[in-house]
User: Fold these one by one.
Assistant:
Number 1:
Amino acid sequence: MLSAIMEDYLKAIYYLQDETDERVRTSTFAEHMDVEQPSVTSMVKKLAERDFVHYEPYKGVVLTDTGIPIALEIIRHHRLLERYLTERLEYDWAEVHDEADRLEHHISSQFADRIAEQLGNPAVDPHGDPIPTADLDVSPPQSGETLADQQVGEKVRIERVPDHDPDLLRYLSEHGITPTTVVEIVETTSFGMVTLDPDGTDERVALPEEVARIITTQTLTGASN
Amino acid sequence: MLSAIMEDYLKAIYYLQDETDERVRTSTFAEHMDVEQPSVTSMVKKLAERDFVHYEPYKGVVLTDTGIPIALEIIRHHRLLERYLTERLEYDWAEVHDEADRLEHHISSQFADRIAEQLGNPAVDPHGDPIPTADLDVSPPQSGETLADQQVGEKVRIERVPDHDPDLLRYLSEHGITPTTVVEIVETTSFGMVTLDPDGTDERVALPEEVARIITTQTLTGASN
DNA sequence: CTATAAACTTAGCCCCATCTAATTTCGCTC
DNA sequence: GAGCGAAATTAGATGGGGCTAAGTTTATAG
């Protein structure tokens, strides 16, 4: 059996590996988990001993074939919970993350399967992230285009918004921006500001470019997730 | 903040205190929690330091006014979860206990309140145990009569069945015995066997007296939970 | 090719919750 | 009220996960 903490490390490796596409370094890790570097080193050694990760001292860490399904299972739990909490228990888009972050380690896969069933086996969570299936398939990474890539005048559908910053989520939802909403880019500035017009409204929503860069989009050619 | 384990100890004290109506002894405790006695002693000291229990060495332990609400909160979580799992997630009466036992420590009270709301703030869990309200009131202990107290020929309503033994629960539900069902006592023997006839059926269900003694009943005079 | 800063690991400590073995206290019998 | 067995406690160890401080290793600049 794995502790909740070990599961968290595996999940973190999965995410970080995905982002940087190479071995995850101790420092990246420590920052992400909000622990000191030596804690990471020692945990990583334990995980390596149990064969969940491949660890090369001073070089970083990669999930093994044993580790990947464990990470995916947790991610499945997390995203299903987020969906369930918002859809069935009236949680707010923004407050869902913390609750899911705790519960993901404690629900059985039976529980996960039951809520998945209740929800009609949804493909994505409320932030637009894909939910791994019961046999742990994940949809391929989506378009990869972000709001920051768009030209003025383009209309795109919001695909995915990262779920880590409640303030950002609150701001976005208050201004009508959630996955699946369509927005038009009305302005981009040289000093890194992107201004949007959510579907049909007259309201303008301004975002710093660094935020625009983490919100992925779909081009409007019929695909609808 | 309390650890899940401390919460478990407090919950256990609450239950055991209720049963025996006096200070809970180390040995009782150890058996109930499935740990060795020294573990109990050391944990109890920590709880006493934090003023959750009153502890007198060699004498046993009682919950303080600080400890009681914590135990009740956990019990509320547990019973709401049991209800939610059976009613909304198609869990079986018998398999509900373990899942609830883990989750009770990890759901927020917000979560508890939401599922309570979804369920229409039920008063009892699927085993017939009362669910503490959001402000932690518990209904007074019920009749106190059990199946073992009944005379042959009596008809009573099943009130409460303890939730700890999945095998027993499975057996009972297979034979149509759950809280709120009405049964007639058809036979009691000198060697400790009680035979029942669940409402309207012709089936006979036999129970050893030690089981009959933990199933509480209501007399059939209009009261309905 | 060396010097040095940054990144990483090792060493050694802490707290938590558990255990076994050894000791103390309780409560009862005679 | 002395002795004895059962119950409880203390002592001391273990494993999990974290920290700080003190080395290493790596990578980069010159």
Number 2:
Amino acid sequence: MKSCRAREEGAAVGRRGVTGIASRGVNITQVARAAGVGTGTVSRVLNDSANVRPTTRARVLEVIERLDYHPSRLASGLSRGSPRTVAIVVPFMTRPSVVERLAGAISVLDEHGYDTVVLNVETAEQRDRHLKSLTARHRADGVVVLSIPIPATFLAAFRKARIPVVLVDTEAPGLPRTIADDARGGRLATEHLIALGHRRIGFVGDLGFEGIGNHSTRQRFSGYRAALQAARIPYDGALVRQGSHSAATSSLLAEELLGLADPPTAIFAISDTQAIGVLAAADRMGVEVPGDLSVVGYDDVEAAALLGLTTVRQPLKESGARGAERLCLLLRHERVRPLREELPLEIVARTSSAPPAAGAGTVRAAGGGSAGRQNAFGTSGDHERRVRGEHRQLLSEQPELHRLAAER
Amino acid sequence: MKSCRAREEGAAVGRRGVTGIASRGVNITQVARAAGVGTGTVSRVLNDSANVRPTTRARVLEVIERLDYHPSRLASGLSRGSPRTVAIVVPFMTRPSVVERLAGAISVLDEHGYDTVVLNVETAEQRDRHLKSLTARHRADGVVVLSIPIPATFLAAFRKARIPVVLVDTEAPGLPRTIADDARGGRLATEHLIALGHRRIGFVGDLGFEGIGNHSTRQRFSGYRAALQAARIPYDGALVRQGSHSAATSSLLAEELLGLADPPTAIFAISDTQAIGVLAAADRMGVEVPGDLSVVGYDDVEAAALLGLTTVRQPLKESGARGAERLCLLLRHERVRPLREELPLEIVARTSSAPPAAGAGTVRAAGGGSAGRQNAFGTSGDHERRVRGEHRQLLSEQPELHRLAAER
DNA sequence: TTCCAGGGCGGAACCGGTTCCATGAAGTCG
DNA sequence: CGACTTCATGGAACCGGTTCCGCCCTGGAA
């Protein structure tokens, strides 16, 4: 008892006495005392729970106002057992498509009264560190994972720690996920070009978030291939390029494609960012769009409309919002149906795509000097792999990516 | 005592018994018991504090590992009096320049072990709600405010609640702030064009974040005017346009400018996003860049380099990082000097700017039909205000903005 | 051998809410 | 008019760490 008293005085002097005012930290006890009620009643008022007489409630509210009392988030979180916080794990948050999703999610979580902690991930090490930290008790009520696959270890850890997880733009069995069908998107883009009459269609992709990101590139590529196959257009690996996800890089890749002896008449880029790079390359090389080259992007970011870029639109902001909503359902222990939710895709035709110029594409490709090349880099699977290392990842299990991940 | 016991049993059945396992929520007491030590010792091990015998430490660590114990963030935060969390208030987080700053800040805070809560603001009401919530106890250890001015009421509230605040890209007296001199940036851009020989220089701005954002537009505009004045070029209000901060809008504004009887030979846009809109407009109208029109943007986002856009570069990511670092200093009670920190600006000349075509610009502007205009919309303050409502905001107290804010 | 300093450590008090139980008062029913 | 709800309320226990006090033990000085 004595020590207790001594300590209280010490605290008063050491922590609060510095300012000479004891006003630092009004707490619920002080409010209760000032209002002449018990702490329980104050708590009931704070939480709008029933069974508080209106006059009492008014009196307490008045005191709260007068003392400028703000309840401690930590304390209420601790006793309630929930921090009222959601964590969002997201790779490369500065990318336009990613930040749109992120903003959509934050906005919904905010409406539901959750704080949002953003965990930005740019390396596998960072990803693991953040995922690991999330299984700690009272770290977050739930987790939204955007555009990044989660290693199975962590999935298990989340399950064990009973932390609700929802996925957006990435998949894992058993978890609620909101996705768009990237393979279908790739097919839509390619089919659009085929319908316009193109037969030599290039592909510009990224490296799959440099070892940590999702598989959208691979899937969009498979859609590209499926569309070609359906149209009986032989696949030409020489028309496929990959590089880091930046307009600058894709611009160089497009230059390579356009510099081929038998260049493509159309290019499908895996994102609008990269499509813009393609447009820039065409501009630099004096290749007319859409006269000499059609370009299709992906995402329909704001700049796409402005540049007249034909693109595959996916609801970015909405995907984040949906993920957040579904997490909120989960947190209220409501059913989340369907577990796997697919958002619509649509091709938005603008001025960057048009039928190929007469004599270009199939016709030109069929004869003339380019024929030799076409033979050399023909359509048989055997040959595909020989053509430039950059696109081998798409065809095999992406060894480069695995290597990158392992190095980290 | 009896009730206590009864309750404990109830809890065991009700909360943990559901799963049949009591493993939900290993806490420090259980760890202490399992390791045969006191809770204090476990805490000392967790916090790497001295005075723990190596053998004891090892034993505790082993138990922690075995029980898969993760300390509760809420509990440690509560007893320590700090949530180890920083809040970032940011307007329109999806804008490229903003998200760069945000990412820079998050990255630094992460390194320092702070969680980052992102509060995205798109309306004045949202801003006020978020700012108000931040003065609550244990909400955040500190606040970084990006690109948005804080009303004085909230500044006072933060001071009273003793919550450290640092500003980035916005100013307030007495607070640590990291900024770039927007007026100087506007001057740099304009001087660059003047040095190339331009004399009819248009200005395309936004509406200052629609009522909640910072004053950068106004300051860049003042830099623009200062540069004109220094070069003794009469200010022509007809060459100034403002609209919402989007490439689509700026594109329309640029069309208006280019459609003038005496169009500008150069346009300074207050962001790269808006400059891209200008480029698109020029493209649509068949105006050659830089032959017929020079364009200068601001920020130097990634797309700028690709498009060959001349721009004013400011260190975006770094500004956020600096702000975060300074907040961390503050949180460690170290001195933050200087309070007002200015980051460097530089003009990056690319291919979107060049000397005006012979006969254009100064020559044409000096005589001919435009003379009358020039007189009508001359440099006297009296006349400026008459020219189109859109740019009046820049000169007066921005009544439109206030109205917008009030409506929300 | 005695005394003292100080390291190692257990555990109570505490951070500030929430929740449940007990209590008393007011209201209802027979 | 008494027994039985029902409602409003005070307050203790609790959430799970941190910290400080004080005890014990060891080693060095006297």
Number 3:
Amino acid sequence: MVKPKRLSRSCVLRLELYLEIIEQFQKEGRQYVTSSDIGSALGIAPGNVRQDLFGLGSAGRPKVGYEVTRLIALIRDLFDLDREKPACIIGFGNLGRALAGSNMWSRGGYKLAAIFDNDPSIVGTDFAGLRVRSIAEIFGVIKTQGIEMAVITVPASAAQEVADIVQNAGVKAIWNFVPVRLNMPETVAVENQSLAWGLITLSHRTRPAQ
Amino acid sequence: MVKPKRLSRSCVLRLELYLEIIEQFQKEGRQYVTSSDIGSALGIAPGNVRQDLFGLGSAGRPKVGYEVTRLIALIRDLFDLDREKPACIIGFGNLGRALAGSNMWSRGGYKLAAIFDNDPSIVGTDFAGLRVRSIAEIFGVIKTQGIEMAVITVPASAAQEVADIVQNAGVKAIWNFVPVRLNMPETVAVENQSLAWGLITLSHRTRPAQ
DNA sequence: ATGGTGTTGTTAACAATTTAACGACTAATC
DNA sequence: GATTAGTCGTTAAATTGTTAACAACACCAT
């Protein structure tokens, strides 16, 4: 049974938080969690949690709570987290390296399958068993390996060009760290991630009263 | 004239986008921008843009648009971006290094003033003219340098402890990259940034129909 | 059994946000 | 000058998201 209903962005964000917390509970050996357990751990009203879970078509038991394994399976299925989708990084500077080395890939249902860079001194080096390839190989590698997602961390001047290449090669999702609005067809899911956002938000929130 | 009204989170996010776009227009030599210019570049309805700008107490001219310099000044003032607030990074792994080397600091109104790490092989090394200091020095350095913000990129097990230290030292904002809910008083602004979020969101958005 | 208690599923009220609409004003044109 | 076209400021409506409330249900104790 699949929900055709679209979830709001904030709801997706909350569900991601739920998943993390519930998996923590699971590690602690819990078999059931209540909406209050989740809510109080996250600072979210229990009713809100129930409503989100309700939208999943969940099946909790009154007085007991939700079955941890079932809830995890539901959310992971919703997010398609249990299929290791091949992904690549384009631009292997500091940020690219940090992302490549993080544990986010498996958490997000992806597998780092290729790394590309422009710099001849970087191309050919190894990282975690992966050889860094030249930009010229992007199209072919994406095609042959069936890569579905590209993380773009190149200089601003090259971003659109790189995006065009990966789109033509059939990539379905782009995680764009470059502060540039990519011009892409709607069939490609683009998430823009500006590093400065967090800083600016904090700067705003701590602005001295005038 | 200061607005006591609180802006919604989504409005803050949009204003950050506006700022980037408007500064691009400025680089291109434009003196005025219309709400349509901004909106179409961002995929946002012009009316929405006007309403956001209206909330700033803006002063556009019909038929002409908004004065670029004035608009930039307004938003930068709103976000307190023109005061170089000292900040620090705690945890100098790959992610810490990537953040340290990025140009986000000046964009976000901060200045990287100190770097801390636990690893003896890293402590004492230099990065961009900054000596990496030991964790033990955090409290003193924050106090003496008046550091207002801390970026935390340490392992999960150390996050809460580090947060407590910086909070006691007087830090007013924390940018938390650790997938852990920090327990902090409300006087401290905490922004949580999970790297996996972007991936999970993309995974969700490109989930094959079932 | 039976009543009490805690928790879910679900609905309804409420609040916030987005979208739409339109008068007012400015600059350009004839 | 008068007219036209384009854009802002502002208000109202529609949509969306959040919060509150409560009946139904399951477990527990007696």
